[in-house]
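Hello again,

I reread your note about wanting to compare the complex against the isolated chains. To keep things tidy I'm splitting this into two emails, and this first one only covers the full assembly. Below are the input lines as submitted, including protein chains and any nucleic acid or small-molecule components. They are followed by the predicted structure of everything together. The single-chain runs will come separately.
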Amino acid sequence: MSNTTLTLAESLDMNAAAPLLQALKDKRGKPLSVDASQVRRLGGQCLQVLLSAQATWATDGQPFEIAEASPEFTDGIALMGASQLAAQSTVQDLTQ
Amino acid sequence: MDPLAAIRDTFFQECEEQLAELESGLLAMEGGDQDPETINAVFRAVHSIKGGAGAFQLESLIRFAHVFETALDEMRSGRLAASADVLKTMLRAADVLADLVSSARAGQEGGHPQQAALSDELKAMSGAAGADDDGGEEDWGDFEFQPMSAAVDLPADTPPARAFVVRFKPRADLYAKANEAALLLRELTRLGDSNVELDTSEVPLLTDIDPEAAYLTWTVTVSGDTDELAIREVFEFVDGDCELSVEAQGASEGAGETGLDIGALLARVQADAIPTIETAPDEPFELEAPAPPPVADLAPVAPPPLSVVSPAAEVHPEPLAANQARKTEAGATIRVDLDRVDRLIDLVGELVINQAVLAQRVMEAGLARASAVAMGLDELEQLTREIQDSVMAIRAQPVKSVFQRMPRLVREVAAMTGKPVRLVTEGEATEVDKTVIERLADPLTHMIRNAIDHGLESPEKRAAAGKPAEGVVKLAAMHRSGRIVIEVSDDGGGINRERVKGIAIEKGLIAADATLSDEEIDNLIFMPGFSTAAEVSDISGRGVGMDVVRRSIQALGGRINITSKPGKGSTFTMSLPLTLAVLDGMVVSVEGQTLVAPITAIIETLQPKAEDVHSLGGHARVISIRGGFVPLIDVGMALGYRATPLAASDGVALLIEGEGGARAALFVDAIQGQRQVVIKSLEANYRQVPGVAAATILGDGRVALILDIDTIVAVSRGEMRKAG
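Full-complex prediction:
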């Protein structure tokens, strides 16, 4: 697979949103696998960026998956009602 | 630097203030204060801590503060009676909250051993509050907002569970102010069963997204035992930084129509008065809770419901703008970095010195006393003194900041020793320099521990002596002749002089056949190595004896004394300088040098007669004073100004009392006078010099050293031993 992987930082608070955006922009155009296994904290602004990325990849017609997720990340997504981010990853996980 | 760190610091500073407010409010209530504003202040304190903790994700702090706040809210609304037991639990909760704050400050977010148990107690209190009928014993009848719920005959059964739909759209400012939507959502979902829906329709693609903007909107349905007030409180601190709407869904059917839903009615009245939902106070919803029976009895005297709307609004969290306005009114204070104040005090010290130098120069120039220059200089002197006083007043703080730590200590020590204790404080408003206050806490803590542990008798003994079971420890502060005097007294058994003397003899501190006055025996407890406790107890005996207390008081330029009456109790009296920036000194000369001895250490001055001074071999000498001998220390030799001692009849002796109560006589050439001097640190400007505590600058511009009497005595004693 030519999937590129992006490992998310431990703390995805408001300070992390800009670097995260930049990192995602750099990976654009290729299938992306996001590793969220290190995430301990997920904030609203980083969630926005991730959702935007998911939509962007979809527009580009490229696969985008959350390959691995820490319990905190999964919990954060559930808390903020952003299950669409996780749902896709579950499907991807199952197909692997 | 991380701007968050600065905000965090401010938060913790504010926490300290809130905790102080919390404790003093609870204590006032325990003492019978029934002012509704007191409990409101208490509630606000906990609420603000919770809010701030939310911003910094201090989970265990938030959780505990929330439970605590809920219980306080019950009390505030009159559903939970402020009985003595309830207040005791609240005070313990305040202690735990304080501990959680300090561990959060230290970066340890581990919770507290008592947190769970106390949370349960608080929850039990809040839960049982509705059914709790023993409220009758406390007279809360004139509680301002109670009649509101009594005004309407509400059924006393529990309101049906209802759901609220909360629409929450953060603005970018919310994030910019270090708030986090995720945390708000977490807090919101804690209120009951929740369903979170996220609207991502505004999120742009990566090319257009601004990472610091806000695009998401949440719709959360919360159901269960909650109310709109609780929901709005979650968002209280992000008031202007988000769009928020809270709507009740499937509200208790029929209630509105039958006119029993006074909450909705009041909300409507409010909504009429204030156009937007966002700013309308939502408190009236709280009124839907059932009125407890004793309260309902008050119905006849209750004012009509509508007239109480505005007082209700007053006592609840207000919209931001109103809140700020009130704050501005309440205290026109500013927070200033202590460094800046210190620098100002330093500069004023320089000014005082400079003024003295100028005055001396004018004198030397031979200008007449009545000359315009001299008169102008007099005025300058007065102004300078006033400036100095005012500047010192900036750093002066009421001793309250130390005193208010003591109730908690008393509670803890009382619990440990099993002795019921009441702490009485007096003169909390007495002001003293901050630098002194900071160093007052440790000795006071120790003395209070000591008073409870050793001073007070056991309840049985007290009963036998015909005293009330509850012991009283009194902490009082007052100004007396330019110093602050702090007294710690207990109504215990007083000092057991025979036992004290016995121990002192046993430990070789005094000779077995020594004849001592009562006062001298009492003061034996300050001797190093003296400890009356047969076993080292957990409370007083932490390797710190009263000698350490005495030493720390002396290090502050203070003195400590004890008076004791058998069967009646003991009183420790400390007298301290009001500031560490200036000092009352005895200006003396030694070999042409000008030195300053702190007045506090000097007991008396005398002109020795040659026959009173005896040589002990080498240069060591003792002087006979009223039948006793004390070492005579030649200051000139101790500091190396001269090699041979001054003849006994050529100088003046200052009888001083140093560390551990040891007396000695400092021998100097002459006394110039008594003066207040500005203290300049020698360590900061040069380096530490044994025998010299600090320096000052005199009117003639010369530096004069301030003697460190304890070191001089200690060094001379060592030399004397060598010589002997």
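For quick reference: Strands of chain A lie at 4-7, 11-12, 32-36, 41-42, 64-69.

B.
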